Amino acid sequence: MTCAGASNQEAQLDQRTAEICLGEVGAAKGYPPPNFLILIGERYGWVPLPFAIACDEFEALVQWLNDHGQQQIARDLGTVYAHDANHRIPPDHAGPCSADAEQIGAYTLRSRADELPGLKDAERWIECEARLRHALQTAADVLLLHSRIGAEQHEKYFASLTEQEIARGLFGKGHCGERGSFSDAHAAQAIAVMREFAENTSLLPEVVARFVEQDAGRSRRLDRLKDQIKTVLPSASIITTKRVAGWSTGICIRQLRRIFALWDLTGEKEVIRLDTRHDGVPALVVSPDP
Amino acid sequence: MFDHVGNFLEWLIAPASHYLTLPATLWQNQSVEASTIGVAVVSVVMALLVLAVSAWRRRRANEGSTLDMGACRASHDGSTAGQADVPAAPTPLSPLDATKPADATTLHGVKAFRLFVSSTFADFGEEREVLQRLVFPDLDAYCATKGYQFFPLDLRWGVQPRSPARPAYS
Question: Of B16, B31, B65, which marks where a domain is finished?
Fold first, then answer.
């Protein structure tokens, strides 16, 4: 399945966008570096509903919502998700993921294309998704507090697709939700462009609305994510750009051009060339023009 | 011989009605040489046309890549004001083009680069457009000179601007 054009729209209606994007991150890792480019600013990004939720976990969430006066949301969850005996996932996401681990059934998001015609409309889905996300997050917080779900299971209701992609791209986190570990091999294949607003800049309201995270919780997650990127990537692989409100994206564009630099905008002669690293892997590297 | 050339020149500048009858006339006169010369000249004309068109396309591409910083500067206040003078979005580099055998996992011997672009949606449109319009085509051309293919993968390009996959809060 692909994510392009009409097929992409199909993927969205089939609720497969996140799965496909994460699959592509993994696929790109089989190619020479650089194979993963991160662009991150002041937004945390879209938090998709988990595609699959283990049966017992889903039922516990619905139960909690029913017990706390949110019957309508519980009913909506039962409409949007359907029990899928064929979708098997490990019972405890935090545990080791082995081939012979006992797998249990799950509830999965139903296709909006043919199973939920009432939610085919984009606007209606966005509204519905936001309500369900909020309810699932609230219930998941409580279940975590009572130790009925683990941190890893809880995480999937809060992680943006961007964070999930970065987790896959930098830490090699897999499908099974295992705690991926950072490796130099992953980092050497990634480039990050981190865009920040210059300090002491008074931002126009429309700029703030479009470019800066407003929610405190999402903001904290964003800061944590950026710290992780700074920690694991070698400094040469990070380009930090300052965006001055009301002026230009030119800074960022110049920096982008520079890292892939076939342009000589800064006066420094830099070129991109095909090189072979010490381990014999061919790579695109930026280096001074000889 | 000169007669044949004369015939041919006449054929070239003849009114449209003659175009239909002259070849038959030449054939009847067994003007093989004229036919041969005709084919050769038409081939040359076609080749020149192809060259001219490709040169023109190259020139247009170069004009595109010399987008200056002033033009970039125009587009920033969060509105779309500055985007009016930017041509319509190019055809997305389709991941379909990037179909590689699933077993292309060995780094050695794989003559392709594949770059996954991960970004939030609403706030990186300009940067991603620059990548697609200016940066990636050059990288592609560079890699081609080295015998490599270059497959940038920005899945957001396949997503409609107001699509639910990347709603306003993304």
Answer: B65
A64 vs A243, higher pLDDT: A64
User: Are A197 and A272 in the same domain?
Assistant: yes
The domain total for chain A is 2
- B130 and A7 within 8 Å at the Cβ level: the answer is no
CB contact under 8 A, B164 and A12: yes
Q: How far apart are CA B18 and CA A10, in angstroms?
A: 56
- Report which of residues A88 and A58 the model is more confident about: A58
Model confidence, pTM: 0.65
**Could you give the 3-state DSSP secondary structure of residue B149?**
strand
CB neighbourhood size of A110 (10 A): 17
- ipTM for the predicted complex comes to 0.80
Check B116 against A280: CB less than 8 A apart. Answer: no
Would B74 be classed as within a structural domain?
A: no
Which amino acid is located at A26 in the chain? G
Which of A132, A158, A184 is where one domain is finished? A158
List the domain range (segments joined by +) for residue A13: 1-45+162-290
Which of A68, A255, A183 lies closest to B135, judged by CA?
A255
Q: Residue A46: which of B105, B106, B167 has the nearest Cβ?
A: B167
The pLDDT of residue A185 is: 59
**Separation of alpha carbons A229 and B8, rounded Å:** 72
- Evaluate whether A246 touches B79 at the Cβ level (below 8 Å): no
Name the 3-class secondary structure at B75. Answer: coil
DSSP, collapsed to helix, strand or coil, labels residue A205 as helix
Q: Can you give the residue range of the structural domain that contains B135? A: 84-158
Phi, psi (degrees; rounded to nearest 5) at A77: -60, -40
Residue A28: closest C-alpha in chain B = B114
